[in-house]
Inverse folding.
């Protein structure tokens, strides 16, 4: 193989982003609090919510209770444990460092190719923790920019 071909192959390999590691329990944390923390732990860390709402829960008989904080929400789909966190402003980030306002390229760098792409929502599925149920990271992209990030149970 000629030296030019070897140089081109090495240059091309350097441009390829290595695959991101698969999701694990540590990916379902916001501000140091795991998504499976109880409501008392959440209040201790984040304080009292700015407001709360009760809404229709398409996944169960219990109402969907949402605690609203500046830049994020904690969602409860029944019981004292949250179903997930929804990040809606740039002030909060995932454990991997993804923030609202980041580019689609940054999502790919941190999380790799999504398990599922449904229009503007990219879903990453945690297959490694079946004991806690199906967990996902859902990223809403708006014109190639992160608009919202959900960390938690798929049906919450």
């Amino acid at each position: 193989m000629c030296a030019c071909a070897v140089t081109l192959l090495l240059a091309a390999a350097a441009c390829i982003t290595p695959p991101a590691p698969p999701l694990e329990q540590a990916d379902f944390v916001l501000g140091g609090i795991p998504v499976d923390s109880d409501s008392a732990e959440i209040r201790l860390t984040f304080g009292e919510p700015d407001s709360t709402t009760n809404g229709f829960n398409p996944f169960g008989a219990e109402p969907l209770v949402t605690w609203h904080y500046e830049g994020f929400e904690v969602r409860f789909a029944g019981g004292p444990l949250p179903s997930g966190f929804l990040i809606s402003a740039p002030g909060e980030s995932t454990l991997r460092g993804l923030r609202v306002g980041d580019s689609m390229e940054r999502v790919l760098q941190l999380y790799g190719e999504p398990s599922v792409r449904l229009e503007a929502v990219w879903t990453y599925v945690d297959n490694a923790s079946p004991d806690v149920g199906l967990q996902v990271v859902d990223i809403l992209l708006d014109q190639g920019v992160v608009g919202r990030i959900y960390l938690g149970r798929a049906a919450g």
Q: What stands out?
A: The CA atoms of residues 100 and 146 lie 5 Å apart.
